[in-house]
Amino acid sequence: MASTTVSSTFELLFISSLLLFSQFFVSEAQGLPPVVKGLSWTFFQSSCPKLESIVRKRLERVFKDDVGQAAGLLRLHFHDCFVQGCDGSVLLDGSAGGPSEKTAIPNLTLRKESFKIIDDLRERVHKECGRIVSCSDITALAARDAVFLTGGPNYVVPLGRRDGQNFATEQATLDNLVAPTANTTTLLARLAAKDFDPTDVVALSGAHTIGISHCTSFTERLYPNQDSTMDKTFANNLKTSCPTANSNNTVNMDILSPNVFDNKYYVDLINRKGLFTSDQDLFTDRRTKNIVTSFGANQTLFFNKFVNAMIKMGQLNVLTGGQGEIRAKCSVRNKDKLLAAVVEGLEKTLAAAL
Ligand code: HEM
Ligand SMILES: *[C@@H]1O[C@H](CO)[C@@H](O)[C@H](O)[C@H]1NC(C)=O
Ligand SMILES: *[C@@H]1O[C@H](CO)[C@@H](O)[C@H](O)[C@H]1NC(C)=O
Ligand SMILES: *[C@@H]1O[C@H](CO)[C@@H](O)[C@H](O)[C@H]1NC(C)=O
Ligand SMILES: CC(=O)N[C@H]1CO[C@H](CO)[C@@H](O)[C@@H]1O
Questions:
Q1: DSSP H helical segments within the chain, as ranges?
Q2: Which of 149, 154, 194, 352 is the most exposed place for a label (fewest CB within 10 A)?
């Protein structure tokens, strides 16, 4: 009896040290940023082992139909994390007391389909494992797969985020997302406040190697005066796509390989064919120019720094443990859903009574 206890204790110790070792190995060997308290590389290893394969398999199909959705999902994770932390607040519809994060100006160009894709993934995951995975974790995994499935690096995502119960206000959204018209000084200062260094800032901006932009996000560089740092032929082509300053059209952000996650965004900047001021100025400012050049010359280096910055971004002000909740539907808080059901029930009762 005693010997069984001893041996199973030993086994447990052995297994947990193996687990510890593998966690250590993952983060140390790849030189990855530390995992914040409450998150873990192996959070769902036993409770939902199929989580990552469900998300990846589904997204393989989604992107096969429309590769553009990858960019939408990557941007959604960025907006989620920068505003009030990675808490799924960007996914919430409306709000009780004012405009929500979703209806704030920078959000107007998030793709409607992205929200549907996240909730569809949530449904698939909850069907398999029960309601144990948050919408914010699913968004983080979807962003990782968006990067990988378009040609970018594969990387591990710390999991265990909880969904927030607070709406982010329109003001919080504006305060936390930098405008595309910002220069490098502004960009570096705003991201330094979130603990990102210049290498992180240049690497994160490399996400603009996939996806599209609406004309209004950059036409201030074309009209009334053309930005002198912009390549002339590139400017003329943009004017054809965006004949007026408030044209509704869209253009690709990386003209060399718009749907491939690679380092061509930096080659664009070196060729003065970056779309936003916030992009192009990275090659003008002496603090970031060499980083742009090095990423443009070495894709492996870019991928390493991008992964590093994404793992940091994915852990910004996360809710863990007993904080927040696991939403049953990504667009509404659980208590709102309950309230909605109660109201609906009440209406039915009333209707029946009348
Ligand atoms: C830090 C400064 C950043 C600025 C000023 C910025 C700004 C913008 C703007 C204005 C758009 C175009 C929206 C439109 O007009 O449709 C855009 C698109 C996009 N951004 Fe950023 N962004 C920044 C950082 C990031 C980061 C950190 C990521 C991800 C890690 C990201 C990923 C994307 C993607 C993938 C798209 C394309 C979306 C699509 O095709 O639907 N951006 N960004
Ligand atoms: C960057 O933008 C800020 C805010 O618009 C401005 O005050 C500053 O002078 C600009 N810096 C450079 C180097 O252009
Ligand atoms: C852009 O689209 C909106 C609605 O989709 C429309 O009301 C507006 O007139 C369009 N603007 C231009 C310049 O085409
Ligand atoms: C590119 O960067 C990687 C990662 O830092 C490095 O190991 C490699 O030597 C670099 N390649 C070249 C050609 O400089
Ligand atoms: C006001 C407005 O248009 N808000 C939109 C913000 O983005 C989401 C997702 O694309 C839309 O559903 C909202 O209508």
A1: 2-24, 51-65, 68-82, 112-129, 135-149, 170-176, 184-192, 198-205, 232-241, 264-270, 277-280, 289-297, 299-313, 334-353
A2: 352
Q: At what angle do helices 112-129 and 135-149 cross, to 10 degrees?
A: 110
Which ligand has an atom closest to residue 113 CA?
5
- The catalytic residue positions are 79
Q: What is the pTM of this model?
A: 0.88
Q: Which residues line ligand 4 (CB under 6 A)?
A: 298, 300-301, 304
β-bridge mates for residue 250, sequence order: 214
- Other residues' Cβ atoms within 10 Å of the Cβ of residue 231: 15
101 is in an annotated binding site: yes
Q: How far is the CA of 280 from the CAs of 75, 218, 294, in angstroms?
A: 19, 11, 15
Class of domain 50-211+253-332: mainly alpha
Tokens for 304? 């390493």
Tell how far the Cα of 263 is from the centroid of ligand 4, in angstroms: 14
90 Cβ below 6 A of ligand 5: no
Return the amino acid letter for 231.
D
Across 254-263, 282-291, 338-347, least confident range: 338-347
